[in-house]
Amino acid sequence: MTLLIVDDEARIRDLIRKYAAFEGYNVEEASNGMEAIEKCRQKNYDLIIMDVMMPELDGFSACREIRRKSQVPVIMLSARGEEYDRIHGFELGIDDYVVKPFSPRELMMRVSAVLKRTAANVPAASDGERVTIGDMVVDFAARQVTIKGEKLSLSPKEYDLLFYMVRNRGIALTREKLISDVWGYDFFGDDRTLDTHIKLLRKSLGEYADKITTLRGVGYRFEKD
């Protein structure tokens, strides 16, 4: 597997490269967002580790451009750990967010976890299955959600989370159950990732946001009609 490491600091790239090589990954590097975009146009990578603050083009902008044509897993690195930055990253469809300074060993564990759950994904529904909830249509086969005929633009993980909750609507889903079934049993992170994606999903659902009920101390439930 080949990783693309994108960071304007050579020492950071070198540190990650050494640990990644030790884990058996092939590694290529880019020093800014523009270079990363160009490399992604020329080659497909298995995962990208990208810094946020870089000259010429920041990581968020580079990720937005890469997402136009690719769903390659992205782990974002940043010295800023505020909720706003995490949410912005997940809105762009990143798979994980790591705050600097970080442990290289932990980063490699996150890389492994993201690659495993990307490969496994969430089990697909049977072909042709769709669920209609008022003016919202959830089409599992087409991997598409529309409200009043308008297609929603969701990140890959938002689709996974919504599809799972709709399949299990009316059932109280614990936080542990959601994380293990949607992110995978080997998810390496904290449950704030779940909360962030629920917040993003509610925002995307608009008038149907209240279909997702918070169960204090338990988790969430997608309400039936």
Fold and architecture overview:
The protein has helices at 10-22, 33-42, 59-66, 83-91, 104-120, 156-167, 175-183, 192-205; strands spanning 2-6, 26-30, 47-51, 74-78, 96-99, 130-133, 136-139, 144-147, 150-151, 173-174, 212-215, 219-222. It is α/β, with parallel strands linked by helices. It folds into two domains: 2-119, Rossmann fold; 130-222, Arc Repressor Mutant, subunit A. The strands form three sheets. It has a five-stranded parallel sheet, with helices on both faces. Helix 3 (59-66) links the parallel strand 3 (47-51) and strand 4. It is elongated.
Kindly summarize this structure in a few lines.
This protein has 225 residues and is α/β, with parallel strands linked by helices. The protein contains eight helices and twelve strands.
Chart the SSEs and their pairings.
Blueprint: E1 2-6, H1 10-22, E2 26-30, H2 33-42, E3 47-51, H3 59-66, E4 74-78, H4 83-91, E5 96-99, H5 104-120, E6 130-133, E7 136-139, E8 144-147, E9 150-151, H6 156-167, E10 173-174, H7 175-183, H8 192-205, E11 212-215, E12 219-222
Parallel strand pairs: 1-2, 1-3, 3-4, 4-5
Antiparallel strand pairs: 6-7, 7-8, 8-9, 10-12, 11-12
Helix pairs in contact: 1-5, 2-3, 6-7, 6-8
Summary keywords:
225 residues, Rossmann fold, Arc Repressor Mutant, subunit A, four-stranded antiparallel β-sheet, 8 helices, 12 strands
User: Which H/E pattern describes the elements?
Assistant: EHEHEHEHEHEEEEHEHHEE
Number of strands: 12
Q: Major sheet, described briefly?
A: 5 strands, parallel
CATH architecture of the largest domain, by name, is 3-Layer(aba) Sandwich
β content, as a range?
Answer: 15-25%
Shape estimate = elongated
Name the CATH homologous superfamily of the largest domain: Response regulator
Strand order of the largest sheet: 2-1-3-4-5
- Give the termini separation: 45 Å
How many domains in all?
A: 2
CATH topology of the largest domain: Rossmann fold
**Radius of gyration based on Cα positions:** 18 Å
Q: If helices are DSSP runs of H or I spanning 4 or more residues, what is the number of helices?
A: 8
Helix content: 40-55%
